[in-house]
Immunoglobulin domain-containing protein (Sander lucioperca), 284 residues
Amino acid sequence: MAVHLRVLLILSGFTGQSQGEVSVKAGSSISIPCLYGLQYISHVKYLCKGFYWHSCSYIVKTNQQNSGRFSISDDNTRRIFTVTINDLADEDTDYWCAVEINGGADVKEYFHLSVTGDTPHLYVDHQEITRLNGDNLTINCYYTNTGETKWCRLGISCVTRSSGSIDGTKVTISEGAHSVFNVTMSGLRTESSGWYWCAKGDLKMPVHVTVTETPTTKQVIYLNLFVFCAQNVCCSAYTDPKSLIISLSLLISIVMVALLIWFMLRRHSKSKSEFRLLCIVIAC
């Protein structure tokens, strides 16, 4: 399991959903995305440490410079501010994500980190996953605790049965061997990108899914051309150092011609003559 864990907290005070408990390993790092309402976009966000709200200590704010083991950033577009805690210790257990309210009580939500020296009680193979548009994705959620099994998307909905859908994406949940349940998302779309989490009882562990568009034919051609040229430069330089300048000059020339053709294809519609020209350049 990776040392750096990206942990998702659903703040009931901000989104109307309960956050549960997060089990993490001592010495690791945690990134906690906190979803907030549209009305708080321009407000200062911060992290406060302590079990009791009235006596917790300010740790880091979005209007101050990050320092030490803690950092914070605010994404106004997605309405998520993210707090990162590095090098977790046993005392890193009680925190509050909060939004400052001028002239009123701050909006806040308590969350608990269960820091263990052993394997966390709920975890996944990878917290960050990238797939292409139209692909299927299977996530293995390992657990040692009991309780209801869920697969949820941040701020949207959950699937609690063997099958369902989230924001138009089909979701299937199946129980595997050795205390693991498998979640399959079928027919991914770019709109499927975002934060999800496995849930077992009161524990949650996040997965961030990024869905990208399938590369176009032109992009594949340019990539193959660049790789071909780079390989020839490396091989020439290795066998004959004097040829390095000539090889680099050739590479630069080919790249410049390829860029020129790319601009031509963007300004004009595709035609057979342009395609033949591109083939001639690649052959040279």
